[in-house]
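Forwarding these from the shared drive since the link keeps breaking.
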Amino acid sequence: MALATTILKAIFGSKAERDVKKVRPYVKKINDLEVQYQSLTEEQLKAKTDEFKARLQNGETTDDIMCEAFAVVKNACRRLCGTTVNVCGHELTWNMIPFDVQIIGGIALHQGKIAEMATGEGKTLVATMPLYLNALTGKNCQLVTVNDYLARRDSEWMGTVFRYLGLTVGCIQNQMYSEERRQQYNCDITYGTNSEFGFDYLRDMGMASCKEELVQRNHFFAIIDEVDSILIDEARTPLIISGPVAVSTHQFDELKPAIADLFNKQNLLCSRLVSEASAVFSKENPSDDELEDATIKLVQVKMGMPNHRQLMHLLEDVEIMKRVEKMDMYVRSDNNRGMLQEVESALYFSMSEKQHEADLTEKGRNAVSGDKNAFVLPDLLESIHAIDTDKTLDEKEKIEKKKAFQEEFALKSERLHDISQLLRAYCLFEKDVHYVVQEGKVMIVDEHTGRILPGRRFSEGLHQALEAKEGVTIERETQTFATITIQNYFRMYEKLAGMTGTAETEASEFHQIYKLDVMVISHQPSLQTC
């Protein structure tokens, strides 16, 4: 199979070479047209925008006018050379004219593909050509980037070309009000981050009461910068809009002292286990039994406090890490349930494999409360059925007994949920890393940018657990009004494209999930024409 692939590549070239070969005629035509446009007056060049719009309205397609539109953008860039542009408060001199490699990237984006281009190839300029072309349809086109600063910078910097050619450019920023956002979406081209676009959609769908309150216009064409990060790494990240519930039922105030004490006990236990394991691994010739016992202790710490600093330091040793991972898989396998229970029995609580939940062990339940039944949820359907079939009760007594049972069940469920969230708050979330406390409020820190996200709250009681942990005012729980994943949001667009320096390795995922083809555009001297 490998030999056949090698032979085919030798005859027909690689996919990247074939992709570039297909668009070379377009590149030549664009460059030829741009040379012709150099003889136009400034007014005549700018008039091309209205001409293109009229032709599209009269039945031509964006594919029909692509070469002419790209040539207009290239010529506009040439004419702008030497002019100064104010970008985020700094004066910059425009000195960019698209090279052939950038034109090829622009064609790939217009065709709804992912352009893989190396760092330094000028992907920011590449996007101007397909954005200009598709914005001529009158529909809002969007450039999605990874943070507010880049969105603002690129909208001001690349916006110079669009405004020169008569198009309007907007930029969505985190602190904007609805009316400001509506104005930005009413522009021909809008820059912003994936989360801002997604949250605006959720507000439109879940909170707007009439058409006039909507801020977005359509989901026509979007180019995503760092597309592998946004569409693959963050694909399953849910965007959630929530609001406070009418009545608060949390028990964080009541539970915090016991859970804080439990956390301290577990921390001391894990520190001792790590210390004992470390001593064994430091020995010159430890026996197999000693190594196995030490590895199990580290597995216990991983189950009990996966972010324990001493554990993380010890796991920097590759050999130890491999031992722990192998033992962890062995202990958690279906054939070793008894061993799993034995390993967990030494802990006060254990974190789930995916670290989303925490459960008290019997040792932990005894430490929190002497009443073992306080943490046992009865079977809801079985208990209700038992009440319904109890012949000693009349209908009124059955209703009262079911109501009392349901209230007790809800109270226990809430207690168990709150305990789990408090344990997550103590074990998995570190102050000044995952969140900060400012002016008596817990503020989330964006894990991708390191920026504080005012107004955002963790869901399902986790934020209240963090507030209890830090001793600040516990605000009311929230209820979800609307939610969508990054993946499902961007699949709504009529046409999607992306840019990155690393996409080929995830080409199958892009095609399977988003029907996006990857076009690798490597820099070549023959693509240097300007």
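-- next protein --
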Amino acid sequence: MFSTWMLVLLLLTGLATLGLGVYAWRQRRAPGTRPMAAVLVFSGVWSLAYSIQLLNSDLSAKTLAFKVYFTAVPLIPVVWAVLGVELRQRAFWFTWPRFAALLVVPAITIALTWTVEAHPWLFPNLRVMASPPLLLLDSDIGPWFWIHTVYSYVLILSGTAFLIPRMLSERGLYRWQAGLLALAPLVPLGANLVYILGLTPPPRLDFTPQGFSASALLIAWAVFRYRLLDLMPIAHRFVVEGLGDEVLVFNESDHLVDLNPAARRRFPAAAPGTPAGAVLADWPDLRELYAHPGPQGRDVRLSGQAEESTWIEARLQDLTADHAQRVGRVVVLRDITPRKRAEAAMALARDRAVEASELKSQILAKVSHELRTPIGALLGYAELLQSGAYGPITEQQMAAAERMIQNSKSLGRLVGELLDQAQLESGRLRLAPRATAIETIIENVQEALLPLARSRALTLTFEIDPRLPAWIEIDPDRLQQVLLNLAHNALKFTDRGGVQVRTNVVDDRTWQLIVQDTGKGLSPEAQNRIFDPFWQADSSLTRIHGGYGLGLTIVRQLVDLMEGQITVDSALGAGSTFIVRLPLIPAETPESQPVS
């Protein structure tokens, strides 16, 4: 009766352990499941082969069964050590060379097992011994057995030691889970120690397989009761539970199965098993979003008045298993109230800035327009006075009239620049492209600037690329304004040498207008800001030469308006080169040349 009960137990536990090993292998993507599957499979092989050994009475049959299960025995400690390392999240420790080194002693043990009859190192003098009511396989103990035993104990205890810190650091069901894993190897170790020390009563049986079977049952309890293979406890704790985002997990029937601490604060009455409709009952927008299948995402205002509203970013994602079968749904909620308030504040500030800019442009345009009439009158009267229209004037009066004329012209240029800037900023300035002769533009600029160049003892040269068409489609007034401003600016800030203006055809669609001087040049900082309104590279030079920092700003805006591009290449002490790239649109020669 005793032997029958023992054999049935060994067979059943062996089959159950193998079944658990197969299940664990199917879940092998989870951490630790591969070595766990190996422990279970090797333990099952040990139990089954040991029971077959007990069933046979022939020495050769018993020896063969012994060789089968003792092939699995040396491998169990190795994979148990690997299991402990993986569950401690230290899998990177095991490189292939280290793993191969761990297998050296088991490999020798297996080799000695299959040649056990030929040497005395492991189990010399194998024999069948009567131990009523069973016939047992008995032998002497060779020296390698103790090496194998000590080595196995060290590996199993080491793997278990890796689980103890995890057991102490975990909380809730995960601490129980780690505790079961740490307790599991103590059962077979205790059974094996009792057998080695000869403490078992007759018949003297090795209960180590049963110990491993009991260990397997503990592991199975951890698997099924504490979801060892379904969840990643450390990742769950540190990622999901530690998230500031609220996470709710529903199953395929839309019942709540889990929620993290952040979600519990918003849904204090929610409990596992509660239907999704009941969980989201107080949040109709979320309930409506959940009602739509598939991935969903929306910014939702939950409750309160406008100034007290809570905004969340809601994201819903289906959980799928093999074959894209839906097994649940995850709801992730993120509080974005600060972001929404910041966006509203930025939108309000932007609207006010746009309104202020438009108001400034309107005032600037109106003031500039109103100033043109008195400045024009002042200039006219000064020129009449200088010409003697009101009678002879003295030389001193003539000089005063000249100053009035020059200052009126300077003030008129400033008013014109302010008006252009206001129109450009408001978008009211429109181009009037037409057939234009580049040579005429060059002549007009040359005529206007030659007196300034001669007064400063500078050279002013112009060069037209012969490949450039005689007539192109462009706004002549704005092109002349760009060239005049660049060349005048170059002359104003050049003390010796000169200014060269030239055109260059880049390709069939683009041409360049290049203004190069031999002045003092610009620093990198100045080059980055030279086109900013009212910015001046050197206030002392500006006081000497005049200017208000609007000329180059208007040039850049006009070039942008003409769908072109302006760049500057300069270095301190090496002069500056301004390059304007413009679209090349050839035009037919008009019947009469337009007046520029």
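Residues 254 and 276 are 6 Å apart (CA to CA). The chain is about 55% helix and 15% strand.

- D.
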